[in-house]
Specification:
With 195 residues, the chain is an alpha/beta fold. The chain is globular and about 60 Å long. 39% of the residues are buried.
């Protein structure tokens, strides 16, 4: 479990940090937003092998472990800071799960925008098994952590990074498009001009 936690943290990519991270451990109230904040199975991903959701913690549970005296809330109004967990469910990624639109599922970007408009420090945790088109997040999010589908200790690894106890060591092995129309994205390869 300790190695799974270290490996998960090392695979994550801090795509953006505009001074929001690390969060102080002295937080008394923290808003935890997004349906994926309460999911175990979606952190395991679509290729889980023998992984069992009951062996994983949710991001909300891992935050509660790290901040036992803090009050976790779904309300931005009463919180000092926020963690917004967005992305794809495990069934949306992987084999036979193509999508015509690579943006965030409906309603998730609006949730991040509400956190942004609150003026409070917040971090977006992006859970996904593939590149998504998230230009607004890249340009505006106070902090954007790409967690991928980090496995059974992934939630605790996310929290380690949010509070500065681990360094996200991952680098992007793929390009993230600005829109689905930009796909396929090539690196160091000249397009032949043929569709």
């Amino acid at each position: 479990r300790a190695e799974a936690r270290r490996s998960a943290a090392r695979s994550m990519v801090l795509l953006e940090n505009r001074g929001a991270l690390p969060f102080p451990k002295s937080l008394k109230t923290l808003a935890v937003l997004g349906a994926l904040a309460d999911s175990r199975a979606d952190l395991l991903g679509s290729w889980i092998g023998d992984g069992r959701p009951e062996d994983a913690a949710t991001i909300r549970e891992a935050l509660k472990e790290a901040l036992p005296k803090a009050r976790l809330t779904d309300s931005l109004k009463d919180a000092e800071a926020a963690v917004v967990v967005v992305g794809e469910t495990s069934g949306m990624s992987g084999e036979a799960a193509s999508r015509s639109d690579l943006s965030l599922p409906q309603g998730q970007l609006e949730l991040v925008r509400r956190a942004h408009e609150s003026g409070k420090p917040y971090a977006v945790v992006l859970v996904t098994g593939r590149p998504l088109a998230v230009p607004w997040l890249a340009e505006n999010a106070r902090a954007l952590l790409l967690a991928w589908q980090p496995g059974s200790e992934g939630a605790r690894a996310v929290v380690d990074i949010l509070f500065g106890d681990a360094v996200p060591g991952g680098k992007l092995p793929v390009s993230f498009p600005r829109s689905v129309g930009q796909v396929p994205v090539y690196y160091a390869y000249k397009n032949s001009g043929r569709p």
